[in-house]
């Protein structure tokens, strides 16, 4: 019996790891208990690239049959570039990121990476290529070291430290009595929204994926934190194909393209300055935001 203990204990560990990581992803997307049944095709290919061009082509989608959420949405993110999506709450912004991660299949049109339809790729290889910094990061009841290393469990201690430094959370960790060994999460030290987001950024830096999804927190931030997050976003999105779901326009004024969504459709697109010149929905949102900041 004792001989069995080691392997069984290990299996228990593997089971918990898998369960945790699924729960983590589901929570990230607010999907708990709602997971759709996505199956790999028997002929599914393994995605293997460091340069990923993403294309959404004439996407139609609804979570339920009788309610269409996205209508004829088309845009592309060239490899290494950044596209930001803005629009009122419920416009369908986060839905785009869920579809790119393939939590659901589209009802019409196609999403492809380097010309390959997502439905022709294995889910594991697709997801290995995407890093997500969600609105509200879920931390495991474990050490802060574990929580960062989760991005790449084989990373060395030095690499975890480097990632923490790049995500501007190293000094904070060093200030804790137990440093990287501090337990965080529900049953440990509670971190602020901004600190949790930095842990997610450090995780993603370690994972080093070619595609990045950044879902900006809706909550208002003080201008110091906002500037810090902008700087981190810039650092982490450089040379990665990036989709930003934005709530504050100031974060995205240097995106390569901004999409303005309304009721599941793209109603305007362009650079920040082009959109201001169009004097449409985006220009209105910008004026409103400036007013409220004043
Ligand atoms: P926000 O800015 O508030 O985050 P959003 O633009 O990101 O909003 P989505 O989360 O994409 O909006 O949601 C678009 C629409 O789809 C909403 O009307 C929402 O109620 C609906 N929706 C989202 N998730 C589901 C789901 N799992 N099942 C059914 N409807 C959903």
UniProtKB/TrEMBL annotation:
The keyword Nucleotide-binding applies. The chain crosses the membrane at residues 1-15. Its main location: membrane. Residues 54-288 form the ABC transporter domain. GO terms for molecular function: ATP binding. Keywords: ATP-binding, Cell membrane, Membrane, Nucleotide-binding, Transmembrane, Transmembrane helix, Transport. It is found in: Cell membrane. The keyword Transport applies. This is ATP-binding cassette domain-containing protein.
